[in-house]
Amino acid sequence: KIKYSLIGLVLWLVTGTVIAQNPLIRDQFTADPSARVFGDRVYIYPSHDIPVIPGHGRANWFCMEDYHVFSSLNLTDWKDHGTILTQNRVPWADSTAYSMWAPDCVFRNGKYYFYFPAPPGGISKGKGFRVGVAVANKPTGPFTPQKEPIEGIQGIDPNVFIDDDGQAYIYWAQGNIYAAKLKANMLELASEPVIFDQLPEKGLKEGPYLFKRKDNYYLTYPHVANKTERLEYAMSKSPLGPFSYTGVIMDESASGCWTNHQSIIKFKNQWYLFYHNDDLSPQFDKNRSIRADSLFFNGDGTIRKVLQTLR
Ligand code: FUB
């Protein structure tokens, strides 16, 4: 690892090229990477899988009680900034659920807004997932959760996109993919949710991640078209669609990992796809590891399929 890090550092210093080794984080399980460029660093806000503890959430399933954030200047050397939020600090969440699923984080008006799904507690216990927001002055926190989840959202995998005109949008999943405008305070919906029912009808779709390149909006999402999730995308000229299904970004994992979950960023003039696989836990695919690979576009704006690098 040290040898690879040195090669990466030299390459970056000499050519400005950054290379990554997969999986990116090796001392803990990570999944659902939401990568963001803040200043000169890439920050990743992933889910944090932990080995299943009997009595903690559902048996043989995802077990997640907190979030860490990681950052890097070169996509090779990653710093773990530690825990930024735990389920027992979220006033409305069920602290016995261990289901802090895929989050996202955006910067707006000097603050960092961290969006996360969790099952609610109290009288709403057992009623699916809600989406909460925690706010910080720095990308590494400390993040303070709001007292209540966002009104009007029932579901998982929040993703926030801020368009060039300043309008923010939130996307989420509940079997299908939904979206709505956010108010300027980034804490409340500003429009009725729309459902993207133009996407392929059959099979679970989750993990929306929207980005813009030139005048195209790309809605990317994992989709169970066959047995496990593959990464697909749809394009539109508007952030609320309608979106036209366009193609596959990454095929199903050869390892058989049931989930995948993506984010796409441009960093130092290169586009990257962040995703996950089960590299460090091939026997139990609910303990996952985040990865990154370069992503390229065709002349017509479509995305070239990304092949997973070997470890
Ligand atoms: O990490 C838990 C869930 O698995 C996520 O919310 C989904 O996107 C899938 O990756």
UniProtKB/TrEMBL annotation:
Superkingdom, taxonomy of origin: Bacteria
Site (Important for catalytic activity, responsible for pKa modulation of the active site Glu and correct orientation of both the proton donor and substrate): D157
Any one Gene Ontology BP term: xylan catabolic process
Keyword field contains Hydrolase: yes
Span of the signal peptide: none
GO molecular function: carbohydrate binding; hydrolase activity, hydrolyzing O-glycosyl compounds
Keywords, comma-separated and alphabetical: Carbohydrate metabolism, Glycosidase, Hydrolase, Polysaccharide degradation, Signal, Xylan degradation
Zinc listed as a keyword: no
Family the entry assigns: Belongs to the glycosyl hydrolase 43 family.
Protein known as: Carbohydrate binding protein with CBM6 domain
Organism of origin: Mucilaginibacter gracilis
